[in-house]
Amino acid sequence: MNSKAFKAYQATNVTTAKPEKVLLMLYEGCIKFVRLAKTKMNEKKIAEKGKSISKALAIISELINTLDHEVGGQLSADLENLYMFMMDKLIEANMHNKIEDLEVVEKLLLTLFEAWTDVVNNPRPDGVPSPKLQPELYAMYLTSNNQSAKTGVTKNKQSTKPNGATAVNLSAEVKQPPVGGNVISKK
């Protein structure tokens, strides 16, 4: 496939992909450019190292722009801080030729990529709010499904017997609370 056709294919792939897939593509691209910067740094090719770091910085900047702080809450804020930390490390690596800083960024990106890949490949049931990202909605979900927020155990139902004694159903059904969440915007 010639270069022009490949670029057209890539552009189509990005514009038609779901936001979650675009997120994974951004991580993959950033990891690629950080690794390329490491290679160019080792080869003493300063200009090419700088270009690769600039591309990684641009991708991290886009990752920051995709955060939805209304949906993501504290997780979104934490991700933004982590992205800013990575940007600082990339700038330090570029200015001082510190390969260790590139390795730190690469490790963080790989960890995030693996985590998001797991979230994308193992989605939660539709309509189930995340306990960490949307605690108020999650509490309402548990209440409507008669579950305890701390244990995930269905609350025991009580009934009153004719003599006034209270009977408790001890056959509690254990349910796993949903995990994961999506803090990227659906632009």
UniProtKB/TrEMBL annotation:
Pfam family, one: FliS
Chief site of localization: cytoplasm
Segments for region (Disordered): 148-187
Biased composition (Polar residues): 148-169
Keyword Isomerase (UniProt): no
One of the record's GO cellular component terms: cytosol
GO biological process: bacterial-type flagellum assembly; bacterial-type flagellum-dependent cell motility
This protein's UniProt keywords: Bacterial flagellum biogenesis, Cell projection, Chaperone, Cilium, Cytoplasm, Flagellum
InterPro entries in the record: FliS (IPR003713), FliS_sf (IPR036584)
Subcellular location per the Swiss-Prot or TrEMBL entry: Cytoplasm, Cytosol
Entry's family note: Belongs to the FliS family.
NCBIfam families (alphabetical): fliS
Protein name: Flagellar export chaperone FliS
